Amino acid sequence: MEEYLITVVIPVYNVEKYLPKCIDSIINQTYKNLEIILVNNKSTDDSFNICKDYAKIDTRIKVIDAEKKGVSNARNIGIREANGKYITFLDADDYLDLNFCKVMLQKLIETNSDCVACGYNRVYANRKEKITNKGQQTLNSIEFLEKVLEVQSGLGFCHMKLWKKEVIRISNVQFDENLIVAEDALFCIQMSEHISKVFITNEALYNYRFNEQSVVRKYDTNYANKYLNAMIETKKYIQNKYNDKLILKKLSNYIVYHVLLIIVNYCFNPKNEKGMIEQLKLLKTICRIEEFNKAIDNCNYDGVSLTRKITIFTIKYKLYFFTMLIAKMRQLQFRK
Fold it and tell me: Do 39 and 12 meet the contact criterion of CB atoms below 8 Å apart?
């Protein structure tokens, strides 16, 4: 099995704190036939030097110093430069179980799948939380699409997967370089059209670091617009391709999940210095945006946790004070 080359693509931008652990987790894989592509996005910290230092001690590492055009551009460069028969994506603040490549390749070959996905550990400062499926699953194209639209399934991430590179190349699907958030889910959604079989293993082989400075959680005055743009592009793609009521319902649920992210990480972020009344006005404004408002009206409560079900109920019925309380409690949980 070692005859198959696996390419690991890692976008790098200002991650000097986490990068060594990330790279160590790749070069120490039990599966050795790897090509490791580190795409530096003009980091202003020591990340680029760390990449070059590792390349000196491991010939499997290729460092590309790219323009600062974002994570999607970096991944697209990695796809173009990849020589492997198989390809996987890794974020530079995360790290792999040392058996990731071996187990994922074995599962992919055994099941003759186009893609294999695994569970993961959510890594906090002082603990880990294991996130896996209840059992192993095999999905067809439509089933995979439906799972990607269920955000809490975890299948919307482009990482935690091993792909047949040929399938990506033939599809001509690329990461949308105009999107800053949810670009990996859109990639998976678009890839679903081109794959016939996805296997999901319940082993947690990826370590996803809970990072308060990540683009998902970092306070940004443009936060809502980033997600609005991503949801518009995703909706446009799905509505052009599918007329299935279940998929369209799941699309509404998908959009509303991201509305909840905006509420917690933008409207009621502790760094949002607006007073309570102004924050509530901001929440109402967000919920009245046409794309969000339609999704709120059309969504149901499938595929989300009890807390999120309650939060969706509060915005559906305009119980915004209770929405605020839940969001503030969620922020307190983040700080523990």
Answer: yes
